[in-house]
Specification:
The complex is a heterodimer of chains A (92) and B (302). Chain A is α+β, with helices and mostly antiparallel strands. Chain A has helices at residues 18-34, 37-54, 77-83; strands spanning 2-5, 9-13, 55-57, 68-70. With 302 residues, chain B is mostly helical. Classes of the chains: A alpha+beta (92), B mainly alpha (302).
Chain lengths: 92, 302
């Protein structure tokens, strides 16, 4: 499975790590839902750390789209909310 | 149905938003192969843009670097002034100098934090630019292969794959440029505010020098205490005579230091009259010397 961390690049992550990533992702989503900025920051940091730990960077000359995309490490909750809407932050 | 939507999570939703963007762009094209050339043009444009972005951030970073150096110099100078003022027994001046130094230091610390952030942004953008270059190269190769090998109908799936891969990268890089621009703008606003603060004299214009009231007072005191020291020496010669002076020369280190510290307090009335004399010669002859008058004007123009 290919996972992208925005601003950082793509990683090939072993499928065995999926369950753990989903669990951390659920924590992240709950934090966004409740508007809990501190919990959000922690959850995002944990999630990114797991992707880096379980994944290996995809070579730059490989053109594949990612199954999962994660926000920038220093994203605010507000940025992530905008990212989730269609007319949000992605240019073009 | 509701259950799956709730469990989709942030990661999946963001990737779907990216994919929706790519599909929307693909749908606009009549001949799928047209998409390849059009997308390639946009990739090249984005590459130019991201390189310009890196250069802009670097320019901004250098400006902040200069400003940090200026603030550091100012801070050092104020520290020296405080030390000098204290050695002359002027605690009030020393306090003022240290107060300004502390303001300069606060600005410096804030700049340093922002500078580090800007540096991080520059690095990220540089890496993003290199990665995009590799992807664009890969895309070009694949584009040529697809055009040479497949008919329009057959090519569709492969075009979609290549296109969504590159379009995700382009979205990511586009965001990176936007973030770097935002941080650069914040930094420039901050730098502008500090420029204004420095021009106002609140941090003491150490570089320009013309508003430096602490320095001028210290200079005046220093000049008058030199006069005091010489005066005390002359008095010493007259009252004690030549042989005593020779003895004094042998141990002048300790003797002079003690004299320097005591002199201003002992002869305050004398000091005031000396200051008055000191001021006069500086004021009078300037108007008679055209050379001195011209100099500052030339300096202003250049």
């Amino acid at each position: 499975m290919i996972v992208r961390i925005l601003g950082e690049g793509q990683f090939r992550v072993d499928d065995a790590a999926t369950a753990e990533l989903n669990q951390l992702d659920a924590v992240l989503e709950t934090a966004v839902k409740h508007g809990d900025e501190a919990a959000f920051t922690d959850a995002l940091r944990n999630l990114l750390a797991q992707v880096r730990a379980h994944g290996s960077p995809l070579p730059a000359d490989i053109l594949e789209s990612s199954e999962l995309i994660l926000p920038h490490e220093d994203s605010s909750m507000d940025e992530v909310r905008k990212l989730l809407t269609d007319e949000g932050l992605i240019p073009g | 149905m509701k259950g799956t939507a709730a469990r989709m999570g942030v990661m999946k939703r963001v990737s779907l938003v990216f994919k929706a963007k790519a599909n929307k762009a693909l749908d606009k094209m009549e001949d799928p192969r047209e998409t390849l050339d059009y997308s390639y043009q946009r990739q090249l444009e984005l590459l130019t843009k991201v390189r310009r972005g890196v250069a802009d951030v670097a320019t901004s970073r250098k400006r902040v670097e200069l400003q940090m150096n200026q603030l550091q110099q100012q801070s050092n100078k104020l520290q020296d002034q405080a030390r000098k003022a204290l050695s002359m027994g002027r605690e009030d001046l020393a306090r003022e100098a240290l107060g300004r130094k502390s303001s300069a230091q606060v600005q410096l610390d804030e700049l340093q934090t922002q500078y580090a952030r800007l540096q991080g942004e520059e690095e990220k953008l540089t890496v993003a630019s290199q990665r995009l270059q590799s992807k664009v190269d890969a895309f070009r190769t694949r584009k040529e292969t697809i055009k040479a090998t497949y008919t329009a109908a057959e090519a569709q799936t492969r075009i979609n794959e290549a296109f969504s891969g590159i379009s995700e990268e382009m979205g990511d890089v586009g965001m990176a440029i936007q973030r770097a621009e935002d941080k650069t703008a914040q930094m420039q606003a901050r730098a502008g505010a500090i420029d204004e603060l420095m021009a106002s004299g609140a941090l003491d214009d150490a570089v320009g020098g013309h508003r430096d009231d602490i320095q001028s007072e210290l200079d005046m005191m220093s000049a008058s205490s030199d006069v005091e020291r010489e005066l005390a020496m002359l008095k010493g010669e007259i009252t004690t005579g030549a042989p005593k002076q020779l003895e004094g020369g042998a141990q002048n280190g300790a003797g002079q230091a003690a004299q320097g510290a005591q002199a201003p307090q002992a002869n305050q009335a004398d000091q005031q009259s000396q200051q008055a004399q000191q001021a006069q010669p500086a004021g009078l002859p300037v108007s008679d010397l055209p050379g001195l008058q011209d100099e500052p004007q030339d300096g202003d123009r250049s």
